[in-house]
Amino acid sequence: xxxxxxxxxxxADGSGARRERSRVNxxxxxxxxxxxxxxxxxxxxxxAQTMTAAVAVKQAGAQLLRGGAFKPRTSPYAFQGLGLQGLxxxxxxxxxxxxxxxxxxxDPRDVNWVAEYVDMLQVGARNMQNFTLLKALGRIKKPVLLxxxxxxxxxxxxxxxxxxxxxxxxxxVLCERGIRTFETYTRNTLDLSAVAAAKELTHLPVIVDxxxxxxxxxxxxxxSAAAVAAGADGxxxxxxxxxxxxxxxxxxxxxxxxxFTFMQRFQAVTQALAQSGPKPxxx
Length: 283
Prior knowledge:
By secondary structure, this protein is α/β, with parallel strands linked by helices. The chain has helices at 47-60, 84-97, 111-114, 131-138, 154-166, 193-201, 210-214, 217-229, 256-276, and strands spanning 24-26, 29-31, 36-40, 64-66, 101-104, 120-123, 144-147, 172-176, 206-208, 234-238.
């Protein structure tokens, strides 16, 4: 990578010295220090559903709330999200729980007004190379969560981060969410080597989405543990109060009880890793 804004090596002075790692402040939650957990429903379906999920993930120990007000779907007939109504529900959930909110934005024309309702804007896998959207996000100061495209190389992913950074917004967090391979048992193939590679090549925080990365609730906890062992700065998890009734991706969501158990295990792993010394990927 030759991009001076993104690279983890400070080539500007020719010294080859490693730049200090970036930390991204999402309304008081710092991503880039100890591992964080972002959790909540795939889509905002109703106020009751979202508030139940928000309270549950807060009580279990999550630091940020996720929820989709806009849902780009494979089928045009599938649930597409509640739009503005969904954003208002997320804003109310923040008032109730105190959790900063992360949501996806899909249209560059929506960036500024969506940013009024939430604390972090997500670029989904399908929009990773929507360069007009990336440039628009680069012109605001809200934190951005950039997911890797399902068919994208690491270099393509990092160049998309560069689009945001080069427009002036330094508050970027990378998210590895799995790539498409010939494997069919899991929804995607979670590429944890990309976590270590991104930390080696850039100064940006990197988190992992084991929900989309595996598509299987039983694999979320072990892959989250593996992610933080690989150097990830956090995970993003889907939690729904009634997954069997979810309007999107219910088969991969954790229930509140499952998420509580997950958090106990995740916190034990992160504490053990903290006591064992520096993460291998940042040596």
